[in-house]
Write a structure and sequence with these properties.
Length: 312
């Protein structure tokens, strides 16, 4: 019995050690490239107001934020991974330490005569031990457009772009409930008239025709989705569609309905988020377990004293 008690105590200590090193990982990234916005009647574009932003947080309230309004290439927000290089969008999944990184950039050239617009954002984090970490990165752009009416035909805007989204989340076998890892991506276009009314909204979701104020001609997979790894379904879970041929005619395509003459604001918004939570048993749980083992030890000793002598 004494040996059994010792073995159980050792197992409890091992559980504590293992749980304290539970790993949870999440990565979410997207690249919107070859984005071309064209006008059927030559809408003129004013200056764009751009924002590229990144933030990252580790447990205990340790956070950092970079970029913001007027920034087209945010410096990376990074904690625990000093070696991350700006705009590399590399992964550090093999790391054995906790870290959180976010990075974003946008080349805002829409309707300015340049070849295309590219926007990239990336978040990744790994948590060793208990706590919560998160990271968010994204880009936004607001461009003023002036449309005209030619021979009674309203102006139309057409959108074509390629996308390279990626999400991966997982828990190692050391993670215990309620640990979880979540990654999400999002992309949205909208056109707002001078009164503030949204006349066009497009958030690609992989369902052809699901669009407001326009026509969608190509939507091969969703760009607004998330994955969550939980105990019992720890993954790795991965979203990495490969049906987009980058550099073609544009995997994603849509156009607005005919627009009345006037001034509009064209908005592009994208984001990548990760949120990772890892847990270990509460201290009082360990105390109760060890107390129980102690009681078992006392009972074992009493049984030993009360056992009848055995005659030789």
């Amino acid at each position: 019995m004494k040996k059994a008690v010792i073995a159980m105590a050792a197992a409890a200590a091992g559980l504590a050690s293992t749980a304290a090193h539970a790993d949870t990982f999440a990565r979410a990234a997207n690249e919107i490239t070859n984005l071309v916005v064209t006008s059927s009647h030559g809408a003129t574009a004013g200056l764009s107001v751009n924002s590229s932003f990144a933030s990252a947080c580790l447990p205990n309230g340790n956070c950092t934020s970079k970029g913001g309004a007027g920034v087209t290439d945010s410096a990376p927000a990074k904690l625990g991974w000093a070696g991350y290089v700006n705009n590399s969008y590399d992964s550090n999944a093999a790391s054995g330490t906790s870290y959180a990184v976010a990075d974003a950039s946008i080349d805002q050239l829409q309707l300015s005569g340049a070849p295309y617009t590219r926007a990239r954002s990336f978040t990744e984090g790994n948590l060793v031990g208990a706590g919560t970490l998160n990271a968010v990165a994204g880009n936004s752009s607001a461009t003023l457009l002036t449309t005209t009416v030619v021979a009674g035909a309203g102006d139309k805007l057409s959108f074509h772009f390629d996308a390279l989204p990626y999400i991966q989340v997982y828990l190692t076998d050391k993670a215990i409930a309620p640990s979880q890892a979540q990654g999400s991506i999002g992309l949205n276009f909208n056109l707002i008239d001078n009164s503030g009314k949204i006349v066009f909204n497009w958030a690609p979701d992989g369902i052809a025709g699901d669009i407001q104020g326009g026509t969608e001609t190509a939507d091969p997979y969703t760009l607004n989705t998330s994955l969550t790894a939980l105990n019992g379904n720890g993954g790795p879970l991965t979203f990495a569609p490969t049906s987009c041929t980058v550099g073609g005619a544009g995997c994603f395509s849509a156009s607005t309905n005919a627009l009345a003459a006037g001034v509009y604001t064209l908005n592009l918004a994208m984001h990548e988020n990760i949120a990772v939570q890892s847990a270990v048993p509460e201290a009082d749980t360990y105390a109760m377990l060890l107390a129980g083992l102690g009681i078992m030890g006392v009972v074992a000793r009493r049984r030993g004293r009360c056992s009848p002598a055995v005659s030789p």
